């Protein structure tokens, strides 16, 4: 599991310092603090950013919104972001609203509010409402990452690294090449959200990353994955063999 | 000399008379056939027009349209024949005999009425005094069977043949044919033609100087002529008698006849004159009528113009009236709106003034409390009395927090009043939001040693605007702390009332309130009374804001309270529905 990379765009150092402190305490990685529009643009493209925290006003101008609008116009570039604002000035809000999906945090804010706002931004951005907060789910799935809520923090897992997923009632055991951990999500949801070309079900309780398959032993109903993980292959899901070109 | 003069008169009569009667008799068959053809060739406009004019005896127009038909369309032989026939007949009627002859000759012998063509050719030849040719034509017709298919009068043919022979001085044959025609005419009861036949027979004898045989016929003709109305015939019969008597040297009688002849001539003239006068009168009356019609038309136009003018002006007036009424109503409406707005404004202004005074009073008192507290702080700092310092700082922070809350509410209230508050409902995790609010109050609750518990179900998502929900929760929690004694407890929990709403309960073990206060709090109108607990800052603005925000989030507010036991503030909020 990796930390979430946050880019902060805030011109007042006292405020950005407080933010950095809060986020670091909660295991977020701060990739940078930009104080102007230009700096923000260059940092955004140089670094790997998962979440943005943007102050609406930079040096008295609504450059924060302009920045959001700029990255909003580039397809695929946009990341989940949170606007920071000290007033609910309707005009600015109407403008900021156009950059969707859009979350904001009203100053002054406490630690919990920042964390909640970031989580909400991720949820909304990947259109998986209530992905982090209910008792039976703590994960939001994007194309590249699984975002998992661990206590007050968020973690990410590169989906490409996942070997297989074992489902146990409400939990899913995620097994990657290096680690193993538990997330909360229902089977139907995870199947729906994962790329069907890469992940396929081999058993009532198993979902396998097809790119990690090393061997299929049809007679023994077994699939052998990278790292010598042995996974059951039940008759019901044997059709998946047809997806591979078999050498005879 | 006299006999020759007599002779000429009789010819003129003989050939004019035939086609009066003939036309009437043979029209039937021919016109029926023409109409049939016209229907058959509906598309030939020119032919149709030609046939119509032909039937109406409008010869000039017939000539024009049949010409057009001939020049444009030559496909159908039958039509061509009809057209030539129309033209020939029309020329003949207009006495252009050579043209008529040419047109008749143009008609092909397959033509249904070719016998008529021959008949007319015979007549034309007779008129052009080409008697032998005429005889040939007539004899051909005579040979035809006496059938209904050929509707012409045999008597005419015989008569005409008789005339031809008479002119050729072949008296025997002439006599034969004339008698035959007279016989037939007697059978047909055609008195007019019979008279001319008698006269021709008389002439026949007279030319041969068979006076004795001639005279009875002249007399017969004369007697018969008295029965008819034809002046021309009467005149001719009379002059014939006059000539006969003159030749017999019976001058008195001849004179009588001549006088009669003159009188018929006069009456003929008179009649012509009468006709002419009648025609003139007719024309005059027609003109008169036309004039009247014109005058009437002009009058009508005037009347129509007048009526239209009246109509338009009345419509205009009606529209003006309608517009007037509409604008008047609009004005009244506007006035009403303005009046209600004025009242609303007055009320708002009064509220604002009151609020302003209370807020400024509160701010003043809290800031003065801070000031005096600061003085104490300085004193204690000098004396290095740190325990007292700590106490004073806590006190200061509580005052600052209270003042901040007041100002925050004021700001939100102002934003709400000016409709500048951004409002967006979304799915919110109620537990997390309460946690966030609680976070700010932890230290105060610790100061008062209040136990706090948030047992809201983590599976509840409400559909509300985040910031307004925070305002609501902040104020309610603030109140709960404010009205709690030391060592009290505050509980926040939910009880689900139904599928679409959840009840959020904020329960404290504080002062509680009586029924009146509860009702006052729930009252819609702005409530700005100083609270009993005078130590605490409060304007009622917080509660008012709560009520407004709850309403805007489609929620409800309820209060359950008992004095000195505690209060339950119940906020009913709509659940987020799509959460499955």
TrEMBL record, chain A:
Question: Which Gene3D superfamilies does this chain map to?
Answer: 3.40.50.2300, LytTr DNA-binding domain
Q: Where does the Response regulatory domain lie? A: 5-122
- One Pfam match, given by its short name, reads Response_reg
The UniProt entry, under SUPFAM superfamilies, shows: CheY-like (SSF52172)
Q: Reply yes or no: does the keyword Phosphoprotein apply.
A: yes
Q: Which residues carry this modification: 4-aspartylphosphate?
A: 55
Task: Give UniProt keywords alphabetically.
Answer: Phosphoprotein
**Residues of the HTH LytTR-type domain:** 146-246
> What InterPro entries would the database entry show?
CheY-like_superfamily (IPR011006), LytR-like (IPR046947), LytTR_DNA-bd_dom (IPR007492), Sig_transdc_resp-reg_receiver (IPR001789)
Q: Which GO terms describe its molecular function?
A: DNA binding; phosphorelay response regulator activity
- Transmembrane segments annotated in the record for this chain: none
Ion transport is among the record's keywords:
no
Which protein, by its recorded name, is this? Answer: LytTR family two component transcriptional regulator
Lineage, highest ranks first: Bacteria, Pseudomonadati, Bacteroidota, Flavobacteriia, Flavobacteriales
UniProtKB/TrEMBL annotation, chain B:
Q: Which UniProt keywords apply?
A: ATP-binding, Kinase, Membrane, Nucleotide-binding, TPR repeat, Transferase, Transmembrane, Transmembrane helix, Two-component regulatory system
Looking at the UniProt entry, the stretches that span the membrane are: 309-328
- The UniProt record lists the Histidine kinase domain at 358-577
GO BP: osmosensory signaling via phosphorelay pathway
Q: Which domain of life is it from?
A: Bacteria
GO MF terms, alphabetically ordered: ATP binding; phosphorelay response regulator activity; phosphorelay sensor kinase activity; protein kinase activator activity
Indicate what this protein is called per its UniProt record: histidine kinase
Q: Which organism is it from?
A: Flavobacterium limicola
